[in-house]
Design goal:
This protein is an all-alpha fold. 75% of the residues lie in helices and 0% in strands.
Length: 282
């Protein structure tokens, strides 16, 4: 009996040693993407707002219920007031954003690819960044009048600064070994920009683009309350004079929707253009 037990133990021991040991892998990534994840937060806020309004915890005169705001938006749209103001705001934001985007990219390329350009441009842009952009409004009104030109100019300044800063930073951060390799390969200036500069600068450019898109809406909401006769900001300013908090919330919600949609569009383009990158978010 003892011999059998000893033999069984001897056979079992090597078998146990031969079993492969499964190493537990710790998953440190954030996990898989949730569908429509960015809508979860706003929907939670909307649900809490609705619940608090239904329970009577919010003063209807200060914070109207969501259904009241929707009903007001429907009336304003039916009257034609809201559609006109929305179109006017979109045109102002689009013109200012286009000018700021073009200026930011061109200045970043000129400053990032040339020491002379950096000496002439970077210090001036940094000085401009240190000056509050909205503080330039009185001066721009004296220069350009109170029409559309000064509003578009201020939006362009708000947009071009983050685009320039992030694109220039990305250009400065390109590994010098890529430059040396391009010189060894005998690449032309155009080929160097296309194959090295643009891929290296795109991540920073998209960060600046997202900040610029958001900045265009932030600047617009202030500018449209100064010497304006149309636009969402003007509508909100008029509502403030008459104590119409529901109209103010309509304007704020539209600004929020515009900002969320534009940021999501930029994210989508970024994901498509930079699909070659393997990052934590992907």
């Amino acid at each position: 009996m003892s011999a059998v037990t000893t033999t069984t133990t001897a056979v079992a021991a090597p078998a146990a040693e031969e079993l492969p040991q499964v190493r537990r892998v710790r998953r440190l990534s954030p996990g898989r993407h949730l569908p429509a994840a960015r809508l979860i937060g706003p929907l939670v806020v909307l649900a809490l707002w609705s619940a608090a309004s239904a329970a009577g915890w919010l003063d209807p005169g200060a914070v109207p219920a969501p259904w009241t705001v929707l009903r007001t938006a429907g009336h304003l749209w039916t009257d034609g007031t809201l559609s006109t103001d929305v179109l006017t705001s979109l045109k102002r934001a689009a013109y200012g954003f286009a000018i700021g985007l073009t200026a930011g990219v061109l200045l970043a390329l000129a400053s990032g690819l040339s020491r002379a350009g950096e000496a002439l441009i970077d210090g001036t842009v940094q000085l401009n960044r240190a000056i509050p952009t909205l503080g330039l409004i009185p001066l721009f009104i004296l220069w350009l009048g109170i029409g559309e030109t000064f509003k578009i100019a201020i939006i362009a300044i708000v947009v071009y600064i983050p685009i320039y800063l992030n694109t220039h930073s990305a250009l400065s951060g390109i590994d010098s070994r890529y430059v040396e390799l391009a010189e060894v390969q005998g690449l032309s200036r155009f080929a160097f920009i296309r194959q090295v500069v643009i891929p290296g600068a795109l991540p920073g450019f998209f960060v600046g683009l997202r900040l610029g898109v958001t900045g265009s809406w932030l600047g617009l909401v202030v500018l449209e309350q100064i010497n304006a006769t149309s636009g969402l900001g003007y509508m909100m300013f008029q509502a403030q004079n008459y104590g119409q908090s529901d109209v103010i919330l309509v304007g704020l919600l539209i600004y929020g929707v515009f900002g969320l949609v534009s940021d999501s569009v930029v994210r989508l383009i970024e994901r498509r253009v930079l699909s070659w990158r393997r990052t934590l978010s992907s």
